[in-house]
Amino acid sequence: MLGAVVTLGPFLLSLMTALKSPKQFASEPVLTPPDPPTLSNFAELFGERYDFVVPTVVTAQVVAVILVGQLLFSVFAAYAFARLSFPGRDPLFWVYLATLMVPQVVTIIPLYAMFADLGIRNTFWALVLPYVFGSPYGIFLLREYFRGIPGDLLDAAKLDGAGTLRILWHVVVPVSRPILATLAIITVVTHWNNFLWPLVITSGRQWQMLTVATSALQSQYNSNWTIVMAATTLAILPLTILFLAFQRHVVRSITITGFR
Amino acid sequence: MRQRRDTRTAYLLLAPSLFGISAFLVLPILVVAVLALQRWDLIGPRTFVGLDNVVEVAADGRFARSLLITAVFVAIVIPAQTVLGLVAALLLNRGLRGSATFRVLYVLPWICAPLALGVMWSWVLAPTDGALNALLGRRVEWLADPVLALPSVAAVTVWTHVGYVALFFSAGLRAIPDTVHEAATLDGAGAWQRFWRITLPLLRPTTFFVLVTQIIATFQVFDSVYALTPDGGPQGVTDVVAGRIYYEAFEQRAVGQAAVMALVLFVLLVAITLVQQRWFARRTTYDLAT
Fold first, then answer.
1. Does A124 map to a domain?
2. Which terminus of chain A is less hemmed in, N or C, by CB atoms within 10 Å?
3. Where are its TM segments located (chain A) (predicted)?
4. CB proximity A95 to B under 8 Å
């Protein structure tokens, strides 16, 4: 019970603050509920001065494109590793696994240099390219699952003359829905929350992600807490709703995968 | 014939991820090693300076200090969140009503952006109009006091991760068959004895998994520290390694030196992983099938 208060307390307090007028925030104690609750902070956040419309749209676009790429290319690679025999398979799989050990903070400097050389710094592609081709993590996760698909199922499809893409789409994907949903959730969470790479590779408003916009807002207006808390709510709330809607699934996927 | 077709199909399927992983994970490791030998300010030309950066980083006390700060941070965070997570899991697994709901609530912070949580907590811990001081009715400089800043940031990190750790322990606990505990009770073991002699040893695989993943993750902490204490905190007391690398490269524009630091961090993390894996392999896991 105490745990729940400690866990939820800060969330509720910041949500309450986001719903208060700056005047009420300044004049009344923290614990007083917003009276009346107002969406004016959010309206102001999306207004001309702070313009959170751009980062919200950019974040949604980036996450959507990465999600499609991750799922598609991770399925491809995982199927090859799980179900096809080819020379170099095992060493190659070890290379993929080894890349799991590469920390993000180590790769941002070289990636910045590479993207600067290519002249695509501060573009949509800069945000998306490093992640869109499938992650070693997702490939590993799916491979384990694909290995468990009964061979008869795949052989039957092959006998019917189905090509690899047809087999993937009509046999593998339908029987792998739970694990694909897990990977989808992990991908959305990871990239909605990503901060360091967007912070480094973008500048100015055009391609600003929500996390970066929230951070910039905090450093500029950190006495204006009602606005700042509205921004944090915006950075947190969509995922919280996703989480509550799929809680069973999310909790299960964390225990299966360790979620990273 | 079949074999050759399989090979071609396999490489076609692998092509996108092979490109992605080589270009954005393997190649960067090589590029960072090259950058470590160069001088670059993010815009101008890169000049080769050999081991100058290494010498400068070694001479720069701030990097050594940031390694030390990170080690202290890990040493505060890991025991605290492991013990608290285990306690929470033991309570959750008593089968009380609503345990499932609590389990969900505890994991909630894990899903949220560490940056956003950091910003949220920077308000909770703010000195004048922050929530915690308002509740306590006193003025404590949680984030601006050189003594309190690092423990405060560590506490926020622990808060974020406890539910996640509890979730794993909770799953580990459920994998222990009731019969094991029942047999021990019949043999006259008390609750405390059962915990130390049975539960804890049987949880060893879970404990190692949690420790390995969490130590690696905590060594790379950046987002929440950046939001809570920008610029390394009061007198640089929260200047963790990832933050130092970021500041060095993107604010000081000393890319070469930052690259050296990044390589040191990389080697350190690989070493930690390998040591832990050997340790893991040496320990036998208990077979619960019987």
1. yes
2. N
3. 58-81, 93-112, 124-146, 167-189, 225-246
4. yes
| Average pLDDT value for residue range A148-176 | 89
CB contact under 8 A, A243 and B108: yes
Residue that wins the pLDDT comparison between B33 and A34: B33
- pLDDT tens sequence across A11-52: 999 999 999 888 888 888 888 888 888 898 999 899 888 899
Question: What distance in Å separates the CA atoms of residue B47 and residue A136, rounded to the nearest whole number?
Answer: 34
Count of Cβ atoms closer than 10 Å to residue B105 Cβ: 18
Give domain status of residue A3, yes or no.
Answer: no
Residue from B123, B143, B251 whose CB has the most chain A CBs within 10 Å, to mutate: B123
Binned at pLDDT 50, 70 and 90, residue B52 comes out as very high
pLDDT tens sequence across B78-99: 999 999 999 999 988 886 677 7
Give me the domain span that covers residue A235.
11-257
Nearest CA in chain A to B261: A106
Give the ipTM of the model, two decimals please. 0.91
- Tokens 């699952």 belong to A145
Range 73-132 of B in CB contact (< 8 A) with A: 88, 102-117, 119-124, 126, 129, 131
Distance, in Å, from the CA atom of B90 to the CA atom of B171, rounded to the nearest integer, reads 11
pLDDT tens track for A88-110: 999 999 999 999 888 999 999 99
pLDDT at residue A9 is higher than 60: yes
Q: Is the pLDDT of residue A260 over 70?
A: no
Q: How confident is the model at residue B286 (pLDDT cuts 50, 70, 90)?
A: very low
What is the secondary structure of B225-261 as a DSSP string?
Answer: HHHHSGGGSGGGTT--HHHHHHHHHHTS--HHHHHHH
Q: How many domains does chain A have?
A: 1
Enter the DSSP assignment of A172.
Answer: I
The model carries a pTM of 0.91
Domains within chain B, CATH numbers bracketed: 54-282 (1.10.3720.10)
- Spatial separation of the C-alpha atoms in residues B281 and B285, rounded to whole Å: 9
Task: Establish if A2 belongs to a structural domain.
Answer: no
Q: Which residues contact B60 (CB under 8 A, 6 or more apart)?
A: B257
CATH of residue A90: 1.10.3720.10
CB contacts under 8 A, A 119-138 vs B, are: 129-134, 136
A 189-228 near B (Cβ less than 8 A): 189, 192-193, 195-196, 200, 210-211, 214-215, 218-219, 222-223, 225, 228
DSSP E strands in chain B: the ranges are: 38-39, 47-48
Other beta carbons within 10 Å of B175 = 11
Report the amino acid identity of residue A31.
L
Rounded CA-CA distance B279/B223 in Å is: 30
